Amino acid sequence: MTEKPRIPGEVYLFTTAIIWGAAFVFQKVAMDLLEPFTFTAVRYILGGLLLIPVAWYFGKKHKGKGVTNNYSSKTLIKGGVICGTILCFAGNFQQFGLITSAAGKTGFITTLYIVIVPVFGLILFRKRVRKLVWLGVALAVVGLYFLSIKAGGFTMERGDFLIFIGAFFWAAHILAVDQLVLKVDAVRLSCAQFIWAGLLSSVFMFILEEPRILDILSCWGPVLFTSVFVVAIAFTFQIIGQKTTDPTVTSIILSLESVFGVLAGMAFLSERMTGRELLGCALMFIAVILTQLPEKKEGKK
Known about the structure:
Helix content is 76%, strand content 0%.
């Protein structure tokens, strides 16, 4: 019996970028209704809880087929705590930044992880980055600038600085997942990291904010979308996709969230793209294509 062809990791990551791109609108709306720690805590915990039956189903399905794995519960818990702690800081820095930062700059600053990931990977894990991928990183950064920053120039405000700090945590999360994807089950890791990230955010929520049930219920749309699609689906797809994808290539594909954020604005808010923004989108897509080209091997002498 022939095996069904597996979906390439890049497809999972591409889907993740689409969902993340659409999520900026919901996150921005949520800041008018909820405080940052409250929103992050609720969506992380709800998303993590939604993944529990999914993890149980796949575990039972594999067991029924006689499939076993050697995944360590200790490694899973450790991975969930590490990734969850990083996510807690990444998500909350971004949410606080969104209060005052423009959506375009938020997308640009956040996706600077495409530069941070290969640099950190090289320094911490000695991960070699191909020349074509470095070229893709450079093109993606230029494309992001044209896409996200208006012709008038770039100024750094308090919210922008918070999002910039968050970019380092998003980069750290990509690298942490890269170290764990072959050691733990993807769905269980996703579930564990979000429940832990939600619990950590809850501590800050009760200390620094005044959460109200009625406020949370009034924000049901953004909470539900980000919990189901962003947390439960997109981040799980990220982990699955990273199993077979280099972390630097992963960061470049995920950076397309900025492109899809603009496209979502065109589709749902009747926004129009300028020639500058179209150029930015084109450069980013070229960057992704470059990372997928095979490395040229030297001929034998």
